[in-house]
Amino acid sequence: MAKLTPKDTLHRVMRIARLNGWSIAIFAGFCAFVSLVCGDWVGAFIGIVVTVGGAVEIRGLRRLQQHDAEGGMDLLIRAQLIVMGVIWVYGVERLMSFDLEGSMAELRPQMQTIYEQTGLTEHDFGRWLTLGFYSLYATVLFVTLIYQGGMALYYRSRREAVREALTAPPEISVSARPRPTVGEDVMDN
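Predicted structure:
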């Protein structure tokens, strides 16, 4: 694969930031709204903070569009760290506060039919519920670390190429050069 020019790298970084920033902002904003409607204040708060992370990435993109390489790249990296940090704080808190008895008490009325249909005992179901809960949050934490952490490293590794692309003198094509006017010598241009 051919090495990308700084200009190509800049365009790729901007395309990724646009897609990633808007995706995060829209999805997290929707989740915050749903959490708010359901009365889940913690979920709404987490959704709002993650939405802010998406907005920070969009702001970083806008700074790049204004030829601010340092400020733009700093915001792109910071956005990933905000999203990763808040998801990790929430996920670790959930893992540490899992209450099997409380969860089982909430599910008991609906579970009798499932016990009869599957042949599971309440103890077996509790083990599956615990395994599922820990697997879900461990997966979310792992994916967040890989994706947001990887994005932060990606942006960091492209900082120099972006700076070079934004500070390079503009290229002037042959067709954009001024043509001699009547009375000017072609050699003077």
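Summary: Residues 6-168 form one domain.
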